[in-house]
Amino acid sequence: MLLFLLGTFFCLRNIFQIKKEQERLYNLLNGKITSLKFTPLLLKDILDELNKKEDMILEERKAIILFERIATKMDFDKEVNKYLVVVLVFLGLLGTFWGLLITIEAVGKTIGELSIEEDNVLLTFLSLKEALKAPLSGMGTAFATSLFGLAASLSLGFVDLQLTKAQNDFLIYVEDTLHNLSRKSTIKINKTEGISEEYIAAIIAETAEGIANLQKLLEKNEKSRKTFEELIEKSVNTISKINDEINIRNNQFQKGEIISIEHLRNIDNNI
């Protein structure tokens, strides 16, 4: 009974704690002054980070870390509730076996002490009736503890379902809130105060890599240009040589024709 009450109190306390922390975060983001005075457990890290910043903006990496911390804390609470439910079932089974042991022991003792006397049958019947009270009490204990264990575990399981629903809704709300805060950080990243050292280092590294690639491309283009110019120069020289050779051949051919014509004239004159 004490364990059931403890588990129920734990679940209900967590549900009300989640509602208070969600209201606290909502009031902080909307600039509302809250009259609630309590120490947050789940949102302590997020509230501390937001109170440090006037613009209510978180980096995406920081938002992911904070969300994982909250999810881890809630997972621990879920494991505690599941453990309490299992313990209640175990105690119910333990009470059942304990009651059955009492029953078996009482039945054995009753049978051992039973004696049938023909002279006093009524006394024997009354003693048997009195002896059966112990086995019946043991059976009552077994069934009672079993039923109580099952009923308590089912009831605590139902309360745990309500806590799980509240935790899931709370996680969705926190995830959306952190997403909006980190998106504001991304939008504001082009301003000076919003640029982090990691972002600047990444931009510088990317720019340096782009300049290096551009320099390699220019060097490659310069080499290609020089190679092309050399190829054109060689082609021009080759064409010039070919033209010179053609001119020489033409001159030789013309000289050969003149000689042939003079030779024919000499032959004609001789005839």
Q: Quickly count the helices.
A: 6
Question: Topology as H/E string?
Answer: HHHHHH
Count every beta strand, where a strand is a DSSP E run of 2 or more residues: 0
Distance between the termini: 155 Å
What does this structure look like?
With 271 residues, the chain is mainly α. The chain has one domain. It is built from six helices and no strands. The protein has helices spanning 2-29, 44-52, 60-113, 121-131, 133-187, 197-270. Helix 1 runs antiparallel to helix 3 (60-113), helix 1 (2-29) packs parallel to helix 5 and helix 3 (60-113) packs antiparallel against helix 5 (133-187). It is elongated and about 190 Å long. The N and C termini lie far apart (155 Å). Mean pLDDT is 73; it is low at 189-194.
Brief summary of the model shown:
By secondary structure, this protein is an all-alpha fold. It has helices at residues 2-29, 44-52, 60-113, 121-131, 133-187, 197-270.
Question: SSE layout and pairings?
Answer:
Layout: H1 2-29, H2 44-52, H3 60-113, H4 121-131, H5 133-187, H6 197-270
Q: Keyphrases for this structure?
A:
mainly alpha
